[in-house]
């Protein structure tokens, strides 16, 4: 019984038809916008100007 199941299972796996080619080809994605390519701002310097540990460096 085990051999029969194995044979039927193996024959079922090999008789699958090949996958059809895609009907519509995927388009290439658009390039990213220019602002994505710019370097990120340095937020640490901005935070250092806003928040200081001593409270004495506030100049505005």
TrEMBL record:
Superkingdom in the source lineage: Bacteria
Topology with respect to the bilayer: Lipid-anchor
Keyword list, A-Z: Cytolysis, Host cell lysis by virus, Lipoprotein, Membrane, Signal, Viral release from host cell
UniProt KW Transmembrane helix keyword: no
GO biological process assignments: viral release from host cell by cytolysis
Classification lineage: Bacteria, Pseudomonadati, Pseudomonadota, Betaproteobacteria, Burkholderiales
Localization per record: Membrane
Natural source organism: Achromobacter piechaudii ATCC 43553
Protein name: Lipoprotein Rz1
Keyword RNA-binding: no
């Amino acid at each position: 019984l085990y051999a029969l199941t194995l044979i039927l299972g193996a024959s079922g796996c090999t008789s699958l038809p090949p996958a059809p080619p895609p009907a519509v080809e995927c388009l290439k994605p658009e390039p990213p916008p220019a602002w994505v390519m710019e370097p990120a701002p340095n937020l640490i310097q901005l935070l250092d100007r806003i928040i200081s540990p001593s409270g004495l460096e506030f100049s505005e």
